[in-house]
Amino acid sequence: MSRLQSIENALASINETVFQELCDSFLILRNDNYRTFSRVGSQSGKQKTTKGTPDTFYLLPNGQYVFVEYSTNITKGVSKLQEDIEKCLDTTKTKIPINQIAEIILCINFNLSTEEIQSLKNLLDKTRLTLTIYTLNCLSLELHSQHRDLVHKYLGLPLDTGQIVSINTFVEEYNKASKGIATPLNNTFLHREEELENIKHIIKQNDFLIITGVAGVGKTKIAIEAINSFLAENLSYNAFCLSYKNCDLLSDLYQHFDNKKDYEKVKSIVNEFFKTIYSEIENKDYLGAIKIYRIYNDLRFAKDKPPYKTHFGLYFPRKQPKYRGGYYLCISPKETFVGGGFFNPEPKDLLRIRQEIAAEGEEMLQIMESVPIKKYFGGILWGEEVKTAPKGFKKEDPMIDFLRKKQFLLKRDFSTEEVFQENFFEEIVQSFLAMRPFFDFMTRALTTDANGISLYE
Fold it and tell me: In this predicted structure, what is the pLDDT of residue 160?
């Protein structure tokens, strides 16, 4: 979907209050030649509309008025607009003589046919008023080309200020801004072949390269030549330039590097990696189905939540009901970890786990103090816990630190450096396998009653 289509869709579904605020901001930016600007149809200090004719007006320096009416009522369509124009011409409602009105502006979030527009113009035949109509198509184009800040503020769409451009566009803008004072960037490049090769080599080996030097030595020129030469030899790469226009760059970066093709490529690699891990553990444990999480966030009950996750997630449980526990892996630039355990046990399951820990405390301690658990998980059992002894258990119980827990989780974090090590795969597998004795202990608790009799024959 193009950016223009995104704006059109957002405008078509906007509520009337936000639409009126958006259009007021749009109109005041288009015409700052006024003495008074009044939003009659808006309640002061509240994001609510109120009845008024017109919805907005402004007084021009020549003493003439401009009336503005807004509509998001696509059901009534042109009939609602006809009513609005007739109200604007009703001096008993506006208290303004018609000969003091210069223009009526209609802002709407839907489109009109030529016949509908003509019917509105006919209402003003006997006057000298100008009729201006900003339809959905017109507003969308205006906002897209001239007012992306309003798109970001009122429609919630990412702001692209046009500061990230192609190399050709950057050269054009640079040459135009220099006004002939600086050497054009599109002139012939001569000599400096050794420097050019050195820069290309550094680009290949490093994430950052800073070219320094006094003004006028050709830093920008050689940088562009090196990038173009590098791209010709490395077809999988692309290049952008920063054409700074005194605006925040962050949103522009999000826009340009949210590349679905690259995501699909990475997703394919990660999914293969996940499936290989699953196959390795499947040979040594009883597993249920693999679950690779989608990247889309659930936005139904969230405020200000981004639409996409910034991590890849893998989960596979043990085969229930006879085997309990599950393995989880999260990979992201900010945090990578493996985990497993029992996140929020049902009350009856929580009670059985506590009963088993109280009865078989020595075995539980041996598991948590075992070499694999200490090596991969630091011998730590994570999870929320109650402040005192849970009901039915004594605070003097030697296992009280475990009994107070409401969650029973093992977690191992990986640094970015560790993720890129050759043994990363093996470390994940060994971490998962180290959980087995812990899972088996919990399985026994959850598949037997308090007398140790199996619930599943």
Answer: 63
Measured distance CA(310)–CA(254) in Å, rounded: 13
Pairing of the two strands 241-242 and 336-342: unpaired
- What does the alpha-carbon distance between residue 454 and residue 279 come to, in Å, rounded to a whole number? 29
Enumerate residues 6+ apart whose C-beta is below 8 A from 318.
285, 286, 287, 288, 324, 325, 326, 439, 443
Query: What is the total residue count of the chain?
Result: 457
Please give the biggest Cα pair distance in the chain. Answer: 98
CA distance 21 to 59: 19
- CA–CA separation, 322 and 255 (whole Å): 49
One-letter amino acid of 382: W
Verify cis geometry, omega within 30 degrees of 0, for the bond prior to 321. Answer: yes
Q: Which runs of E-coded beta strand occur in 290-426?
A: 291-292, 312-317, 326-331, 336-342, 408-414
If one counts every other C-beta atom within 10 angstroms of the C-beta of residue 147, the result is 18
Locate all alpha helices (DSSP H) within 179-306, ordered by sequence.
193-205, 219-233, 250-256, 260-282
Q: List pLDDT tens digits, range 147-163.
A: 877 888 888 886 666 67
DSSP 318: B
pTM: 0.48
Structure tokens at 440: 């088996």
Report the C-alpha gap between 456 and 168 in whole angstroms: 70
Helix (H) or strand (E) holding 340: strand 336-342
The angle formed by the CA atoms of residues 430, 435 and 438, to the nearest 5 degrees, is 155
Cβ density class 219-233: b for 16+ within 10 Å, e for less: ebbbbbbbbebbeee
Are the CB atoms for 115 and 108 separated by under 8 Å?
no
Distance CA 297, CA 306 (A): 7
pLDDT in tens, 171-210: 888 888 877 677 788 888 888 889 889 998 898 888 788 9
Task: Using the structure block, give the residue that is written with the tokens 């730590």.
Answer: 380
* pLDDT (0 to 100) of residue 156: 83
> How far apart are alpha carbons 358 and 445 in whole angstroms?
11
Q: What is the 3-state secondary structure (H, E, C) of 102-127?
A: EEEEEEECCCCCHHHHHHHHHCCCCC
The angle subtended at Cα 43 by Cα 40 and Cα 45, nearest 5°, is 130
Three-state DSSP at 380 gives coil
**Please, are residues 64 and 96 in contact by the beta-carbon 8 Å criterion?**
no
Partners of 59 in beta bridges: 36, 65
